[in-house]
């Protein structure tokens, strides 16, 4: 969401997300352009560059169908269909990628922010979810493409901050904190995490001492603190490279929290 629209009405917020989907896709296309379709993607080692593009374009189309289905669940075959990207011409995929982003933006605007839509999230079943989620799906894979092609990667501060806000909502989903037999307990006394941006005045403090995680903008001391540029804080939660970020305190707690809050990424990787 751009700073100019912060605090605006729901229609304006959704329109911002539709614009961001298209904008982030344009930046992804720039990162891929001229690359080797068979180049491995270091952060997604099972994919080459062509498969990464196929995944993003297919996911945009799937999200557009999910928005248009008005609450019905849609098959995720489009998300899974990455095999055809192995040897494709990246120049041909460029237009296909742009078309998928445009389809999603159109579907979001036609639906409106409160239109019912199936989502994998608890308590959020509207088209707005897909605008926000696909913005950061595209941002993340733009980073992956940049890692594969050696291109620079950056995210506007307002966009990166909203991405971290979105991640914090995942931390409150029951699957992210309820006991699991294969992992240590997440909640407990004295457990808190602090994410502190070094290039802007932004903090996120996650409190794990209650019966469910909560987060605030406070900068009180925590069991583990992660400090770094805002873009790298966003990449930290997605477990992408963060060369200048510093972690102090209970690194094991951070790793456990990232594992638990990233449960939906694990499901995506296994699919």
* SSE-based structural type: alpha+beta
Cα radius of gyration in angstroms:
18 Å
CATH superfamily membership of the largest domain: dinb family like domain
- CATH hierarchy class name of the largest domain: Mainly Alpha
Strand content: 5-15%
* Overall number of structural domains: 2
Instruction: Please state the second-level CATH architecture of the largest domain.
Output: Up-down Bundle
Q: Give me the strand/helix succession.
A: HHHHHHEEEEHEHH
In the CATH hierarchy, the third-tier topology of the largest domain is known as: Four Helix Bundle (Hemerythrin (Met), subunit A)
Mean pLDDT: 91
β-strand number: 5
Domain Mycothiol-dependent maleylpyruvate isomerase metal-binding: 20-146
GO molecular function: isomerase activity
Protein name: Maleylpyruvate isomerase family mycothiol-dependent enzyme
Pfam families: MDMPI_C, MDMPI_N
What does it look like?
By secondary structure, this protein is of the alpha+beta class. It folds into 2 domains: 151 residues, dinb family like domain (Four Helix Bundle (Hemerythrin (Met), subunit A), Up-down Bundle), CATH 1.20.120; 99 residues, Nonspecific Lipid-transfer Protein, Chain A. The chain contains 9 helices and 5 strands. Helix 1 runs antiparallel to helix 4, helix 1 packs parallel to helix 5 and helix 2 packs antiparallel against helix 5. The two termini are 30 Å apart. GO terms for molecular function: isomerase activity. This is Maleylpyruvate isomerase family mycothiol-dependent enzyme.
């Amino acid at each position: 969401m751009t700073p100019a629209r912060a605090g605006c009405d729901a229609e304006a917020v959704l329109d911002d997300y539709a614009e961001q989907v298209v904008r982030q896709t344009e930046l992804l296309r720039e990162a891929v352009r001229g690359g080797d379709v068979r180049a491995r993607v270091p952060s997604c080692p099972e994919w080459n560059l062509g498969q990464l593009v196929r995944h993003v374009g297919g996911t945009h189309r799937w999200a557009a169908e999910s928005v248009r289905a008005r609450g019905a669940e849609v098959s995720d075959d489009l998300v899974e269909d990455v095999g055809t990207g192995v040897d494709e011409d990246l120049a041909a995929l460029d237009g296909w990628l742009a078309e998928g982003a445009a389809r999603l933006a159109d579907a979001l605007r036609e639906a409106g922010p409160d239109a019912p839509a199936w989502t994998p999230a608890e308590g959020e079943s509207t088209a707005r979810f897909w605008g926000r989620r696909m913005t950061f799906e595209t941002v993340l894979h733009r980073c992956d493409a940049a890692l594969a092609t050696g291109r620079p990667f950056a995210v506007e501060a307002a966009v990166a901050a909203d991405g971290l806000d979105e991640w914090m909502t995942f931390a409150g989903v029951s699957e992210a904190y309820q006991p699991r037999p294969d992992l240590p307990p997440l909640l407990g006394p004295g457990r808190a995490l602090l994410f502190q941006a070094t290039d802007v005045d932004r903090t996120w403090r996650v409190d794990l001492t209650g019966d469910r995680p909560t987060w605030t903008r406070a900068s009180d001391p925590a069991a583990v603190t992660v400090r770094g540029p805002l873009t790298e804080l966003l990449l930290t939660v997605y477990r992408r490279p963060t060369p200048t970020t510093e972690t102090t305190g209970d690194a094991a707690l951070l790793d456990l929290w990232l594992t638990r809050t990233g449960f939906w990424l694990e499901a995506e990787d296994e699919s």
